[in-house]
Amino acid sequence: MVGMCQDFSKNIATTVNAKAANQNAGNQAWHSKLTPTASRAVISSLIQISFTDLNLTNKYWGCGENSIFHDFSKFLTSFPNQLLSFKNVQSTTISKYLYHFGMVDFLIGCVDSVAPDNVTTIYQLITPFLMKAPEFISRVRAHRETVNLILEFLNSTCYRVSQYLKFKEMAIFNECLLKSLQALQGNLASASGREVEEENFQDLIYVMDILDNLLTNGFLDFDDTDENLGISNMEATSIASNCGDTLIYGVSLVIPVMTESLLELPGLSERYYRLLSLLCEIYPEKVLKLTGDQLSSFNYSLQLAMNAGPSSAAQALDAITELAEGIDQSKDPNVKNSPELLKFLESLIKPVFDAALLYSSRAAEIGNGATRAFYAMFKCHDIIANACLQMLTGVVNSVQDDNYRKQVENGLGVLVEDMKKCIAVTCPTRVAKRNMKQHFMKSFDECVSQIAPIVVVK
Prior knowledge:
Helices cover about 75% and strands about 0% of the residues. It has helices at about 1-20, 35-50, 55-60, 70-85, 90-100, 105-110, 120-140, 145-160, 165-190, 200-215, 235-255, 265-280, 285, 290-305, 310-330, 335, 340-360, 365, 370-380, 380-395, 400-425, 430-455. Helix 5 packs across helix 8 (about 145-160), helix 15 packs antiparallel against helix 17 and helix 20 runs antiparallel to helix 21 (about 400-425).
C-alpha cells in the first residue's frame, strides 16, 4: 500500500501533464488509466487509510519532504496559481485541466474523505483552489460542464467540510461562495434560453444545494463555540450575518430563473420551496429586505407553491408565517410599516385562506400551516388585520346561492367575532397571548371545516 501511495504521489503531476501534452509517457502507470470519477474514490480511500492511526498519519503527512503524500500535497496546493499564471491561457485549456484531466475530481476526492481527525489537512489541500474558484468560474463560464464541476466541489465542501470550520475560516469560505455566485450571475441570467429539462439546469440545482447546506451546516450554533477560539459573540454574529447576505444574494439569482415551467420539474421545485422555507425561518430579516421585482417574484413563487400540492404548500405557508412574525417582531419602523411589505402580505391573505380550504381534508399532510400563517398575518399589523376581515366578507359575497351563502356567513360569523376580539384586546402576558392564539386557531379550523365543502369548487 505504501509503495502504491508513493507512486501515486510522485507521478500524479507527470500523469496530468502527459495528458495535457497528449503524450503516452505515463500510460503504464495505474493511476493514468483512472477516469476522473474513479480518481475521486481512489484519493478518498488513500487519504482515509493514511489517517488510520497517528504513526501512519505522521508517515504520510508529517515528515516534511519525506512524507509519502508530500508531492501530492504540493501538486494540489500549487496547481491553481500555476494554471492561472500561464500567459494567454485559453478558457478551453483551463477547462481541460479542470474537467478532462481530473483536477477538480482530485479535490472532490479529498473532500469526500473528510473526518474530524483529518479536516485540518483536507482544508489546507483545498484552500488554494477554493480561493481561486470565483476566478476559475469567470474564466470557463462558457464551458457549462466545467462550471458545474466547480459548483459540485463547492457544494461538497459546504456539505462535508464547513461544519468543521472555525468562524474565521467560515468567514473566508463564505466570501469565496459569494464571489463564486457573483461570477455565476451571467450564466444564470441567460438560463431562460435553455430547453426545459432537469439536466440542463444542473448549475441551478448546485446553487440551491449550496445555499441549503450553508443554511443547515450548523455554523449558527454559537453555544458550541469555545471561548478560546479568540472570537467574540459580536464577531460570530457578524459572520453569520454575512452568510445571510450570501444566501440572499444567491436566492436573488435563483428567484427570477424559477419560472412556472421550471417549477414543474420535481428536482428543482422541491429544492426551491425548501430553500425559501428555510431562509424565511433562519433569516426572516434578510428576506424582508427584498424589494421590487425580487419581492414580486418571491410572491409569485409562494402562490405557485400553495397550489402545487400539500408538501410544497406546507413549506410556502411556513415561509409566510416566518415573514409575518418577522414584521410583527421587527423594531425597525421601515420594515414594520413598509408599504411594499404590507402590500406583499396583503396579496397573500386570500391565497392562504384558499389553501386552508383546499387542503382542509388533508391535515395529516399539511398540518396546521395555513392556520398559523393566517394568524401570523392577522396579528402582524392593523392594516393586514383589517384586510383579513375584508377578505372574509368577500368570501361570503362570492357564494351565489342564497342558502349556501347563509351557511358560509354563519360559519364565518364566529371567526369574524373572534378576530374582532383579538384586535380589541391587549394581552399583557405570554400565557394570555398563547391562550388567545389557541382560541383563534381553534375557531379558524372549525370555520374552515364547516365552509370548505361549500366554498371549494370540486
